[in-house]
Amino acid sequence: MVELSPGFTAVTGETGAGKTMVVTSLGLLLGGRADPALVRIGAKQAVVEGRISLDPDAPAAVRAAEAGAELDDGDLLISRTVSAEGRSRAHVGGRGVPVGLLGELADELVAVHGQTDQQGLLRPARQREALDRYAGDAVGGPLVKYGSAYRRLRDVAEQLDELTTRARERAQEADLLRFGVEEIGAAEPLPGEDVELAAEAERLGHAEALASAATLAHAGLAGNPEDPESVDAGTLVAAAQRALDAVSAHDPVLADLAVRLGEIGILAGDVAGELAGYADNLDADPLRLAVVEERRSVLAHLVRKYGADPADAGSGEGIDAVLAWAERGAIRLTELDGDDDRITELTAERDGLRTELGELAQHLTDARTGAAERFAAAVTAELAELAMPHARVTVAIRQTDAADPATGIEVGGRAVYFGPTGADDVELQLAPHPGAPARPIAKGASGGELSRVMLAVEVVFAGSDPVPTYLFDEVDAGVGGKAAVEVGRRLARLARTAQVVVVTHLPQVAAFADRQLLVEKTNDGSVTRSGVSVLEGEDRVRELSRMLAGLEDSELGRAHAEELLAAAKASR
C-alpha cells in the first residue's frame, strides 16, 4: 500500500519496472475494464483498494451517499476485485455497488491523461463546462437566467403538447358533456322527484282498491250511516271503557286499562276521520296516471345514461346521481372550453420565452467567444514552453442549424438547436504546426504531444475545473532538456490547486515533485513482484542520478541531481 498525498507526486523506476501498475490500479478503482490477465497466474483474484479524502458536500461524496456508501472519518473507501475468471465486483463506502458507479465518481475525482487513455477535458461537455468556469461571471450570470427561462419553456412546451395532442379527445369529451348537460337541463329534474313519482304511480294504479279498503275501514270504525243497526268499533270501545270506569275505583289495574281504552277510542276516531278524507281526496284519474308514467320514463332514461357510477359512492342514487353528474359535467365543460384560451396564452408565453432564450444564448456565445480567445492564447503560450513552439490551440464555438425553425431559437439571425446550457457546441482544437488544419485535440496531436497539450490546458484551467486529482502517464514523452524542466515546473504549478500524480522517466520532471515514489520489480525465480517505496534524502538523489546518468553512484550524476532538486525548490 502507498499513500498518494496532496501536492505533486512523481512515480519513477527503470524501464519495464511496472510504473503503469499505478495507472492500471487507479483505472480499476475508477471503473476501468476488468481484464482477467491482470490476475497473477495461480492466484484466484486481484484486489485494488483506495482511500480518498473528500469533503462531505463534494459531488462525489453526495453521489456515493445516494448509493448507500458512508464516509470513514472524511475518507471514502473504494475497492475493486477482479477474479481469474473475469468477474468483477466493486465496493464503495462498505456497500456493494455497480461498477458503473465508479465511473460516475471518477468524473468528479480524477482526470487521467495518458498515452492511450485521455479522459476529462477530451469530452466536449467538460470542455464547455470548464470554459464557462474560466469565463467566470461573464458567462455565469446569463447562464443562470438562461437556465431558468429554459426550464420554464420546457414546462410550457409540455403543457402545450398535452393540450394540443389531446385536442380531438378533448373536443369529443366536450361534445358529450355539453349534450348531456343540455339534455338534463331540458328535463329539469328535481331532487327526489323520481321517488315521489313512483309513490304517486303506485297509488294511481290501485286507486279503486285503495278507495274500497278505506271505505270499509271507515265503516268499521265509525259505522255505516245507511245501516242503523250496524255496530261500529268506536261505540264498542266506548261501551267497554264505561264498564271499566264503573269499577275502576276498586282496582288500579282496571283503572289503567280504562284509561288506555279511552286513548284507543280517541285514536280510532282520528283514524276514521283521516280515512274519510283519504277516500274523498283519492284521485283515480287515468289521465294523471299517464302523465306520471310518462315523466317517470323520462327520468329513468336520464338515470340509465347519467346515473351513479358504482365506484362513485358520493354521487347518490337515481335522479340525485343525475343531478350530481350534471354539476360535475358543467364544471368540466367550463375547463375544456377554457383550454382554447389557455392554449393561446401558453403559445404566446412560449414564443416570448424563445425570443428571450435567443437573446440570452447570444450573450452566452459572446461571453464564451471572448473567454475562448483568452484561453486559446494562454494555452498556446504554455505549449511554446513545452517543446511545441509552433503549436496553436483554438476553441471552436459553433451552433447547429435547426432542421425545423420551430424547434430552435434565433441566434445571430439563424434558427439553431439549443439545450439547457445554451446553443453553443464548444470544442478545443489544435494545429500542431504551421499550415496544419486545426483539429479536435484528440485527433490533432500525437500520443506524446497529447499529454503535453492536456497539461497546458489543465494548467490554464487550474482553479476552474473542479476535479481534485490529475494523473499524467508519461506526459514528458518526446521532450527533454529545457522543455522537460518546463513540464516539471508547470506540473508543480498545477499541484498548487490540486493533487497531481505523474508517471515519468525524466529527472527534470521528477525533481519538481513534492514526493517521489520508486516502482521496482523483484524476481525470486518463480514469481515477479512490483513494489513501491517512498524516496527521501539520499535515496531520492541516488534515483535521480540513475535517471540522469544511468549510474546511481556517479559523482557527476549526483551533483547534477542535487542541482536539479535545488533549482526546482528555488523556482516554486
UniProtKB/TrEMBL annotation:
Domain named RecF/RecN/SMC N-terminal: residues: 3-525
Gene Ontology CC terms, in alphabetical order: bacterial nucleoid
A GO molecular function held by the record: ATP binding
GO biological process assignments: DNA recombination; DNA repair; SOS response
UniProt keyword terms in alphabetical order: ATP-binding, DNA damage, DNA repair, Nucleotide-binding
Short name of any one Pfam family annotated for the protein: SMC_N
Family of this protein: Belongs to the RecN family.
NCBIfam families per record: recN
Function recorded in the entry: May be involved in recombinational repair of damaged DNA.
UniProt protein name: DNA repair protein RecN
Natural source organism: Actinacidiphila yanglinensis
